[in-house]
Design brief:
- By secondary structure, the protein is mostly helical.
- The chain has helices at 2-36, 43-61, 63-86, 94-116, 141-163, 166-175, 177-182, 187-213, 219-222, 225-234, 239-255, 268-284, and strands spanning 131-134, 137-140.
- A hairpin with a 2-residue loop joins strand 1 (131-134) and strand 2 (137-140).
- Helix 1 (2-36) crosses helix 10, helix 1 runs antiparallel to helix 11 and helix 2 (43-61) runs parallel beside helix 4 (94-116).
Length: 298
């Protein structure tokens, strides 16, 4: 019994960095959903491309400048997706907008595979690499960087939406663009700003996660998928909910392998997450469609 509890504790400790990454990605998903009522399925690719840019730029201009340019590129990429795809499909339907982001995902993954190849490349670590023990778990400085960035990003997000007019303007622009215009709000500019912010959040998470797990055009974008589960668990309009959802997802991924031989089977953490998401959605009575999800504000 003690060994099982110890294994669970170790699993939770090792899952905290992943939960932090999912929180960063999930916050970006919430920002976009608040602004456009769209589930951005290109989020993983938007997070990965800046990590590749950092890999290419850091030897030439240094890591600090390359990080700033990569984060800015992530924001610009978010704006480009909104302007060139989502905005053009707005008059069709929300489903068409979501499908458009799937096309963007496929295009970006193909471009990354063509430019940088499909071999696993070492990501750029933003902190000195060092290992240390937390109880029975072995953690690295990159893990702490993910946790710190998640906490800082969450504080920035809450401050922005609780103490500024931006959050209200963004929600109003998403719900009723005509009313927003009558109140002096430019809905297109507000939406673009939201996508820029979400792109920066995605880029930060992608850069930090790549420094720990490496760069691959097919694998790294898919590591963001649990963030969508976190957003569904916590509510696509709730910042606080998505952070809690990320914690639940990260802990589930860490605990399941410690539950014996069944939990160690390939794909079992993903099966557990799927079952959990379906149960939560069923209890809420909410259909699994991007345009139909309704949750309370953070």
């Amino acid at each position: 019994m003690i060994s099982v509890l110890a294994g669970i504790a170790v699993g939770i400790a090792l899952a905290l960095p992943l939960a932090s990454a999912y929180a960063l990605f999930g916050l970006g998903i919430v920002v976009i959903h608040r602004a456009s009522r769209v589930l951005n399925l290109a989020h993983g690719a938007i997070a990965t491309l800046p990590a590749y840019l950092l890999y290419s730029l850091s030897p030439r201009i240094g890591i600090p400048a390359a990080v700033l340019l990569s984060l800015f590129a992530g924001g610009l990429l978010g704006v480009a997706v909104e302007r060139l795809v989502v905005r053009r499909l707005r008059r069709v339907s929300q489903t068409a907008q979501t499908v458009g982001t799937v096309a963007v995902f496929a295009l970006l993954v193909a471009v990354m595979g063509k430019v940088w190849g499909t071999n696993l490349l070492p990501g750029v670590s933003l902190v000195p690499h060092q290992a240390f023990r937390v109880g029975q778990a072995l953690m690295f400085t990159e893990d702490l960087a993910l946790i710190a960035a998640s906490i800082l990003g969450s504080l920035v997000f809450f401050g922005l939406f609780k103490f500024t007019h931006f959050g209200l303007a963004m929600r109003l622009a998403a719900d009723n663009r005509q009313a927003a215009s009558l109140m002096g709000i430019d809905p297109d500019r507000t939406t673009a700003q939201a996508w820029f912010l979400a792109g920066v959040f995605a880029a930060l998470g992608g850069v930090l996660l790549a420094g720990e797990s490496g760069l691959h055009p097919y694998l790294l974008p898919l590591q963001m998928l649990p963030a969508f589960v976190a957003a569904l668990l916590g509510g696509l309009d709730s910042a606080f909910g998505v952070v809690l959802g990320a914690l639940v997802v990260g802990v589930a991924i860490g605990i399941v392998p410690s539950l014996g031989s069944i939990g160690q089977q390939p794909g079992m953490p993903q099966v557990a997450l799927t079952a959990l998401a379906l149960v939560v959605m069923a209890r809420r009575g909410v259909r699994l469609q991007a345009g139909d999800v309704r949750s309370s504000l953070a």
